[in-house]
Amino acid sequence: MSQWTVHGSRPVYTSPWVRLELVDVEPPGCARYEHHLIRLAPVAAVVLLDDASNVLLMWRHRFATDTWSWEIPSGIVEDGETSEAAAVREVLEETGYEIQPDDLTPLAYIEPIGGMSDAVHHVYLARNARPVADPVDTHEADRIEWRPLDEVQQMIDDRAIVAGVAVTGLLQLLARRPQ
């Protein structure tokens, strides 16, 4: 299969968080048509692991799916910010824990919906987190808990962890764990 040809695009909706475009595309051997494209800012996420093999999780409600589940700290990489800097900032804002950029180890790079979006997620592992303040983003979680890594696979199976960035990061950590 060959690369699709992009003939142009036009915006349909724009906000600080999302841009919806109609893109004039031509797949190889097919007629041209307009394809929806959702442009999103990059996301940085962090799996925090302590010395006792517990992970820091946030219990929260997502209105779009009307579901409750456990998630890892994550958020948008702001203009001019690196994904590492965003990861450090989001952990502090959402959990009150401080980590250093040197504490970050890449776990995954994800393009979660590549057929419809240019979204990318950078997922890191961090150790040595220390509590330094109350969370600033109090709307992000109803509670924050250290949960045993040994329980994570069952939590995913039970749909207690469903966010794609959290599932990916936690499964990567489980896959890399020494047996």
From TrEMBL:
One of its GO terms (molecular function) is hydrolase activity. Its cofactor is Mg(2+). Signal peptide: none annotated. It comes from Streptomyces laurentii. This is Hydrolase. It comes from the Bacteria. Belongs to the Nudix hydrolase family. PANTHER family: 8-OXO-DGTP DIPHOSPHATASE-RELATED, GDP-MANNOSE MANNOSYL HYDROLASE.
